[in-house]
Design goal:
The complex is a heterodimer.
Chain A (H helix, E strand, L loop, with lengths): L2 E4 L4 E4 L4 E3 L1 E4 L5 E7 L5 E7 L5 E4 L2 E4 L9 E3 L8 E8 L8 E3 L3 E6 L1
Chain B lengths: L4 E3 L2 E4 L5 E6 L6 E7 L6 E7 L2 E4 L8 E4 L6 E5 L8 E8 L9 E2 L3 E5 L1
Parallel strand pairs in B: 2-11
Antiparallel strand pairs in B: 1-3, 3-8, 4-5, 4-9, 5-6, 7-8, 9-10, 9-11
Classes of the chains: A mainly beta, B mainly beta.
């Protein structure tokens, strides 16, 4: 079945450091890929998405590129801020019988120190 | 535009008791999802509705969990009887259409503790 694997966490960085959170997936067909963010005490919010190979999603300085050849969707940000501290989830939405259902990775906790 | 509303925010019960959660999706959203998020894990889909019909309930433990969306708008998820392993955050999400390209919007969730 479909699955998403994220890098082990937690990740601790200093402000203005470069961020990479790795995400790889297994799915049949051509899934859409998403990054969701969960701030403390809040629900999941969509951060960015990509719906086909080589698409780049971007938002709030975060970027991720849909790489079909490596089945990856790594999240990057050039300079993190304290306000970026949250839990980040990579997810895919597949077609076929699982139409629209989101399959999530286990989440990566990011803590940014001043 | 109002977001996805869920209540209650927190619930503490003893094992073998019953509990119900309520969700009101974004106005006009035909598709509604219930996810279970166990601490330290990503959310897992329990059930998906399209209007008032069930699209996918393959991961719903039907011996104890039930869900309904009678009028195609708000929805309730019930657990009866609860087990210790049901302790989790229950998330409701909605989207305007079905499909892998559509965005799901999430509520803040209901945190359930089963003692």
């Amino acid at each position: 079945g479909d699955s998403v694997t994220q890098m082990e966490g937690p990740v601790t960085l200093s402000e203005e450091a470069f961020l990479t959170i790795n995400c790889t997936y297994t799915a049949t067909g051509y899934p859409s890929l998403f990054w969701y963010v969960q701030y403390p005490g809040e629900g999941l919010q969509l951060l960015l998405k990509a719906t086909k190979a080589d698409d780049k999603g971007s938002n709030k300085g975060f970027e991720a590129t849909y790489r079909k050849e490596t089945t990856s969707f790594h999240l990057e940000k050039g300079s993190v801020q304290v306000s970026d501290s949250a839990v980040y989830f990579c997810a895919l939405a597949a077609g076929g019988t699982s139409y629209g259902k989101l399959t999530f990775g286990q989440g990566t906790i990011l803590t940014v120190h001043p | 535009e109002a977001g996805v509303a869920q209540s209650p925010r927190y619930k503490i019960i003893e094992k073998r008791q019953s509990v119900a959660f309520w969700c009101n999706p974004i106005s006009g959203h035909a598709t509604l999802y219930w996810y279970q998020q166990i601490l330290g894990q990503g959310p897992k889909l329990l059930i998906q509705f399209q209007n008032n019909g069930v699209v996918d309930d393959s991961q719903l433990p039907k011996d104890r969990f039930s869900a309904e969306r009678l009028k195609g708008v708000d929805s309730t998820l019930k657990i009866q009887p609860a087990k210790l392993e049901d302790s989790a955050v229950y998330l409701c999400a909605s989207s305007s259409i079905q499909g892998p390209k559509n965005i799901q919007y999430f509520g803040a969730g209901t945190r359930l503790s089963v003692l």
